[in-house]
Amino acid sequence: MNKLFFGIVLLAILSACHKKKIIKTINAPDYHPEVSKRQTRKLIKAKEADFTFLNCKSKIEFSDGVDNFNASANIRVKKDSIIWVSITATLGIEAVRCLITTDSVYIINKLQKEYYCYSYQSLKKRLNFDINYNLIQSVLYGNTPFKVIEQDSSYDCIDTSYTNTKQIRGDIQIQNYIKNNTLKLHKLDIGNIATSDKISITYDDFKLLDIDSFFGFINKISLNYQNRNGFQSFYLGLEHQKVETGNADMKFPFNVKQKFERKE
User: Which terminus of the chain has fewer CB atoms gathered within 10 Å of its CB, N or C?
Assistant: First the structure.
């Protein structure tokens, strides 16, 4: 599987796309250290993003420690249904198109005239990481990816800036760093305790959208994992340029030409 495929999978799975209507940054509510664990959990839920359609134009930077490339991305989302990604290389030529559905991930590499089809189970085997559509969508929206429940969660207050919500799901440990003044996810670490595989996402450059919704317009994503080829490390930087929501007529074109070769 080539590096370009990994770059697009990382982009489609882990980037966070948000609305464009930037009004201005204002003072957020004061942080109150005496807020209980139960109250904090309720406030985190109340600040999660929720929209039906999304159309985002972004700049991306990808590196695997050996090669680097920059490109433009167009990302479209229909909530609980489809995530569509188009990557444009130099000279405005579309290089890759990706379609993520509730059961599969499809990739067309137009430059190499080849395509890939993967179930989430097959991606799990390749990446040593349990990926599904709901997880992808939560991270795209900049929301905490796993429901916080009393049985598997603990809280640590990091000075007065962040609260770290720790969760354990089997071999997976999740750490959600919540910014106390906005109650938005600032950093997310998901790691496999058994294998030391880890995904880290940092959301930055928060802007106030609408009345009381904060979103990060700069995202830094890293993935470190072991596979049959040894230790792999990837970095993806994402900066949103233009984002719109609420387009029910948005299209998700995805057709594989007959001459394209299927790859594994």
Answer: C
The reported pTM is 0.76
Do 222 and 200 contact (CB within 8 A), yes or no? yes
Cα 133 → chain centroid: 11
CATH superfamily name and code, 3-251: Lipoprotein localisation LolA/LolB/LppX (2.50.20.10)
d(CA 172, CA 90): 39
pLDDT at 31: 39
Query: The tokens of 238 are what?
Result: 């994402």
- Give the Å distances, CA to CA, from 52 to 32, 137, 147, 216: 33, 11, 20, 19
pLDDT tens column, 131-188: 889 888 887 778 888 776 655 566 666 667 888 888 887 788 888 888 887 788 889 9
Q: CA-CA distance, 133 to 254, in Å (whole number)?
A: 18
DSSP state of 253: -
114-119/261-263 β-pairing = parallel
Rounded distance, CA 166 to CA 260, Å?
A: 45
Instruction: Check: CB of residue 101 under 8 Å from CB of residue 82.
Output: yes
Question: What does the alpha-carbon distance between residue 246 and residue 233 come to, in Å, rounded to a whole number?
Answer: 36
Give the strand pairing for 94-100 and 82-88.
Answer: antiparallel
